[in-house]
Amino acid sequence: MNDASGPMGPAIRRTVLRQSKRAHVGHIGSALSIADMVGAVFSAMNDSDPANPERDRFVLSKGHAALAMYAGLAEVGVLTADDLDTFCGDASLLGVHPEHVLAGVDFSTGSLGQGLSMAVGAALAAKMQGSARRVFAIVSDAECNEGAIWEAAAFAAQHRLHNLAVLVDNNHQQAFGYTKDILGSHDMAARWRAFGWDVIEADGHDEAALLATLLSAPGELPRVIVAETVFGKGVSYMEREIKWHYLPMSDSDFEQAMSEIGQPA
Amino acid sequence: MRTAFVHALVELAEHDERVVLMTGDLGFMALEPFRDRFPDRYFNMGVAEQNMVGVATGLADAGFIPFCYSIVPFAVLRPYEFIRNGPVLHGLPVRIVGMGGGFEYGTAGPTHYGIEDVGVMRLLQDMAVIAPADAEQATTAVSALSEWPGPAYLRLGKNDKLRVPGLDGRFELGRVQEVRSGSDVVLFTMGSVGAAVVEAAEELEREGISAAVVVVASVSPAPRADIIRLVSGCRHAVTIEAHVSNGGIGSLVGETIAESGAACRLLRMGVDRPYGERGGSEAFLHETHGISAPCIVDRVRRHLELKSAS
Q1: Which residues of A touch B59 (CB under 8 A)?
Q2: What sections of chain B are H helices per DSSP?
Q3: What predicted TM-score, i.e. pTM, was given to this entire model?
Q4: Range of the domain at A213
Q5: In a shared domain, residues B150 and B197
Q6: Is A100 on the interface with B (CB under 8 A)?
Q7: Which of A81, B49, B67, B300 has the greatest number of CB atoms lying within 10 Å of its CB?
């Protein structure tokens, strides 16, 4: 476990807002949605040193929220403030979606539904190698539209990959609408349960509780935390608004957002 | 090639504990020797080829060398984007194994045709694309692949008895294998039509046309230097493949001739319009698409007559 003295979520949110504003890009709501989960994952990992082959792995399957991952990597010291300032710049390793060429990113993602299979492979590899390392993955509820998510889910349960923990960012919306209006408002927890997973339902913004769950001893099955979240969490005008999947902030948007998120104590 | 492949893989796995075999629920009466010898390194992934490639990517990242087995379209086309974003993007040694290249599963219908695979796999960065012409060559190719650090695609045929005279199991990455010499025309061939091409060359010889036969099994890395050398000494080249005419060795040889500036005319014999026609056996479909031995003889003869008359 990393030496985190408190929740990383607030600092991750501040970085997401600052860098989105500086780079004038969108996907802000998606990154804010997972800020607390990302904080919990980085705190739960046994080591964040990319040079350690026995470190736990973290796969951000919903790759469009990579900025939250970069912010987390900065919190644990893998990235510097200068690195963050290259976000979305020319010749940068920090793009909108995470690339494995960046230290701290094991798998490139961005095409939804693929990261989970790679995470399952990483977990299977650890099991075959007799390693205690764990694999954490964050998928979005909309990403569960992809059939490949369920191929991966079935395999992980069949092979009892208890070293795999998946967090579903259950924010009920997707790029161009609300999940209930597009492919139905299925009970997300019930779906994973039907696939044979150890399912825990949680508040996706309670970082301390998420961390405790991630650190609790796994059973025999792969574990999924269906984390109830609010898209755009922490910025009132972004919360539950489809357009904040896309829009960059104006100067006044940014000022309001930073004031709502608050400064470090 | 199927039995030969599995035996070669068992041999490889005996000496390399990184080798893992995954199948998309296919390989009955073929993969059992590996499964029984290495149960801990064998996974039936179910009918879920996208996940198979994704999991293989995760395994390869941790140091394994996974072989992902299915029939050509399900091994290549279904998970194509997983292949691109997985082993290709990450530069990992995942091996995609497609069984039944061309029309080997002809009676199974168009969903089982394996005729676009080489073209789409050739597009991918650092992807070795290997299409052996017979079982002995497949055995050598599996062994040679262990030196290839990136991803690879093996396009195999079911028939283990087929043998290309003069090939003698030779294979080398980035090289062609000349199995017959000739001075009037060079016949380039890929995959299990190779034996028919040699048969056609023998018939052409009886008719007074001297045809060289060259097996292109290492499609990528491309044997460009060999192709340039061969076409530089000959006015006519023909490519023969059970693959759509665009993207396979017809394209490879055509691109190579054009870029080299060699004064060589090219006839590409492949599949032009595969769908919407009546199906049948591999032999029937080779006849239909003009790549059976008699068709090759006829088309090569007419091509040379036409060119010498013009």
Answers
A1: 121-122, 124-125, 128
A2: 2-15, 32-37, 49-61, 72, 80-83, 89-90, 117-122, 135-144, 194-206, 224-232, 249-260, 282-288, 293-309
A3: 0.96
A4: 9-261
A5: no
A6: yes
A7: B49
